[in-house]
Amino acid sequence: MEVYLDNSATTRPYDEVIEYMNEINKYMYGNPSSLHTKGIEAEKLIKKARETISESLGVSSKEVYFTSGGTESINLAIRGYLEANPRLGNHIVTTKIEHPATLEVCKYLEEKGYKVDYIGVDEKGVVRLKELEEKINDKTALISVMMVNNETGSIQPVDEIAAIRNARNRDAVMHVDAVQAYGKMQVLPYKQGIDMLSVSSHKIHGPKGTGALYVNRKLRIKPIIFGGGQESSLRSGTENVPGICGFGLAVEKTFEKIEENRLKVEKLRSLLCDMLKKEGFEEYKINSPDNGSPYILNISFPNVKAEVLLHHLEEKKIFVSTGSACSSRKRKLSHVLEAMSLRTCDIEGAVRFSFSSFNTEEDIIYTVDALKEILPKIRIRHGGKR
Ligand code: PLP
Questions:
Q1: 3-state SS record for 16-49
Q2: CA distance linking residue 235 with residue 225, whole number of Å
Q3: Which residues does 59 contact at the CB level (< 8 Å), separation at least 6?
Q4: N or C: which end of the chain has fewer CB within 10 A?
């Protein structure tokens, strides 16, 4: 038995997506810029995928640009907007719990002279709106917030943030990192007052290396990659046709069952919580808020090193994460859990279980049984001995 509970890091692609991409790689390999029928065929495939994605967001297909993934979309949105509009202010407002794709761009921009305010979060991992309101001023050019945090699943009040922006500085544009929200909950840029929005394919059973950026047509943004002028000159480079089409199909399949999938993972997440409670686990602390995304459950096992637990689970073919996938190799304490003011021992013992519609009840039962067996063996007892 193999239990994959690391779906926030990435998901297994749908079989249909793999088959479709194989077909495109084999037969529909034309360059969309070529003038002959092979090129036109590829161009049509991209057009279809663009329409699928724009429909899923309720925006115009002219406002959707394909990129290599969430990271590139975020970089393009933030840098591309600020570089195109230098006179609109040099102040950025973001949060302490963003993905490194956002935090590292902000760090880079600080070196270039921008002022960045990183807003804190409460103990549930939700951005402090009062602090955000105080920081937005008439020099604020851009606000960048995530919709769902990738480590805890905390949902950020994007609609309220847009309303605060409207009240404080209507000219400040709002970018939303919707990588962990897209295909899992309502993401509607027009309705929610979002000006730019980043999504990624591999979090919803699509291929890796593909994503999209929505940019409201009223905005002017500059490319960060220059070349042949593809994607209306915003993102040069020959299009990843199989990736884009695989993404399109993954969106179709995910949105068809968005509600059904949500109910399914909600049940699995509750089952895991209930079983932990019933089985009388010695000590643990659920870090994810009750009203967070049902796709993510972050749990601390104090006096346990999360990495040790991860490897013991792995021996039983159960795959989970400590913190986020990108930062877990760096052996740094999670910046998200730190921002939530968790005790160091709770951060060190934090494991993320993340679900998808591919998971089953058996997966959860098997995982709880494994935890029951592993935890007593690896818990560090007082006095430092295991
Ligand atoms: N933003 C969030 C919230 C994420 O979880 C991730 C991926 O882990 C990214 C951005 C980056 O997306 P990608 O892996 O497609 O570059």
A1: HHHHHHHHHHHHCCCCCCCCCHHHHHHHHHHHHH
A2: 6
A3: 189, 190, 214
A4: N
Q: Please give the backbone phi and psi of residue 354, each rounded to the nearest 5 degrees, phi first.
A: -130, 135
Q: What are phi and psi of 89, to 5 degrees?
A: 125, 160
Distance CA 14, CA 32 (A): 25
Closest C-alpha residue for ligand 1 atom 8:
9
**What domains, with CATH codes, occur in the chain?**
3-11+257-378 (3.90.1150.10), 15-255 (3.40.640.10)
Q: b/e for 77-108, b at 16 or more Cβ within 10 A?
A: bbbbbbeebeebbbbbbbbbbbbebbbebbee
Q: Which residues contact 385 (CB under 8 A, 6 or more apart)?
A: none
110 vs 93: CA distance, rounded Å: 12
pTM: 0.97
**CB 303 near ligand 1, within 6 Å:** no
For 98-149, write each residue's pLDDT tens digit.
999 999 999 999 999 999 999 999 999 999 999 999 999 999 999 999 999 9
Q: Which of 245, 273, 326, 345 is catalytic?
A: 326
